[in-house]
Amino acid sequence: MTASHAELRQFPVQDDCLLLGGITLTRLAERVGQTPFYAYERNHIQSRVALLRETLPPGLHLHYAIKANPMPALVQMMAPLVDGFDVASAGELRTALDTGMAPAGISFAGPGKRNSELRSAVAAGVVLHLESEDEMERVARIGELLGITPRVAVRVNPEFELKQAGMKMAGGARQFGVDAARVPAMLRKLGRLELDFQGFHLFCGAQNLSAKAICEAQRLCIELGLRLSEYAPAPVRMLNIGGGFGVPYFPGEKALDLPAVAAGLHEVAATLAAASPQTRLVLELGRYLVAEGGVYVCRVLERKLSHGQVFVITDGGLHHHLAASGNFGQVIRKNYPVAIGNRMLASPREVATVVGPLCTPLDMLADSMELARAEPGDYVVVFQSGAYGLSASPTAFLGHPPPLEVLV
Ligand SMILES: *Cc1c(COP(=O)(O)O)cnc(C)c1O
Question: For 125-134, how does the pLDDT look when each residue is reduced to its tens digit (9 = 90+)?
């Protein structure tokens, strides 16, 4: 017996139909006016943030990493719920500023920031997470030119890595951040420049479902942050320890044990408060806030039998949802949770392979999965799709129309 997907309970069912934001899927599809589309549920996202607020240490600052889902309406909804935004481009910076979020709560990370991006960021007054000494010097020159003292933090590439992360982003040779061993020398230079030093940023990796690994990484981040603070040119006001909280996508994966992660965070928050009371602890989360509240919906065009195998051919696929096709960082292709959204309970079931319209075998949304028997006109729903969906997909590939996005 192969492992199955963790049971999804985030959306109720009414009249055999998935309910999104209290609207049946068939009615929502009429409202949207086309398939395919992405739908993100306000209620789910708000509840997720509320759960974190209840569980995590009280003084902890929660940031939303916009790259997980940059839809402007969603980011706007997030603005009053979180303490800050993390952006990674001038485009995301504009989206963040448009919400009215205070610039001091916006941080800008990412290797290879262009001078035009740095100028916008300095002019806006957001916190630049410096990824190299070269960037530090460019920011200082821009500050001088504009007559503004730039707010900066140093992104550190620690020696340790985040074990069991779906995507490792620290430890060893990396394009991200400044190697921990080089940070003391960089801080000496920073102290001589006209820069407003805020603190450190450590981001070890993403999509981690192991509470133990996350707690271990967070403890190491605090230790490293405190060690480096001895070289800081000013008191460390902010320590951003990343996040990397994962969500279950594939068969056999279980939801993150949030109470266990929170227990670890209470400990590190206490350690930090005792050693450095003026330092604000920041957690930045992307997918954990938005992935599970979103679905991708496409429509069945045709059924096809080939060598006894059922293919359900849809109007959506890889060009809209690269991650669900298995081509966004997966080593071995696995199925996202998929259902026939207007046949949630009653229909007979079959094993089928769901594909899109593209002329490539990579365009697959479900491989040999047990699903309700689908007919042309039915809706295929891909769950866990609120993060790294549309904005992480090659919409121009093959020239089909793009999907719409709605917040419900
Ligand atoms: C991508 C990224 C995040 C968000 O990661 P999630 O897996 O979506 O939580 C946070 N911080 C930085 C620096 C990132 O690059």
Answer: 999 999 999 9
The Cα angle at residue 83 between residues 204 and 232, in degrees rounded to 5? 55
111 and 256 assigned to the same domain: yes
**328 pLDDT exceeds 80?**
yes
- What is the count of structural domains for the chain? 2
In a domain, 6, yes or no: no
Q: The domain that contains 141 carries what CATH number?
A: 3.20.20.10
User: Whose Cα sits closest to atom 8 in ligand 1?
Assistant: 286
Q: Is the CB of 37 under 6 A from ligand 1?
A: no
Parallel, antiparallel, or unpaired: how do β-strands 196-201 and 280-285 relate?
unpaired
Mean pLDDT of 177-194: 97
Same domain for 136 and 108? yes
CA of 6 to the centre of ligand 1 (A): 24
Residue 353 C-alpha to ligand 1 middle, in angstroms?
32
Render pLDDT for 42-63 as a digit per residue (tens, 0 to 9): 999 999 999 999 999 999 999 9
In a domain, 65, yes or no: no
> Mutation test of ligand 1: which of 52, 66, 78, 86 has the most ligand atoms closer than 8 Å to its C-beta?
86
Domain boundary among 285, 313, 328: 285
Residue 107 Cα to ligand 1 middle (Å): 12
Select the more confidently predicted residue: 169 or 343: 343
Is this model's pTM higher than 0.90 or not? Answer: yes
Give yes or no for a cis peptide into 376 (omega within 30° of 0): no
Nearest to 69, CA basis, from 248, 258, 245, 294: 294
Mean of the pLDDT values across residues 20-24? 98
Cα torsion 262, 268, 272, 275: sign: positive
Spatial distance between the Cα atoms of 308 and 285, rounded to a whole number of angstroms: 44
pLDDT single digits (tens) 352-400: 999 999 999 999 999 999 999 999 999 999 999 999 999 999 999 999 9
| Separation between Cα atoms, residue 108 and residue 121, nearest integer Å | 8
Query: Residue 106 falls within a domain, yes or no?
Result: yes
Whether residues 90 and 206 share a domain: the answer is yes
- Which domain, by its residues, includes 304? 13-40+292-407
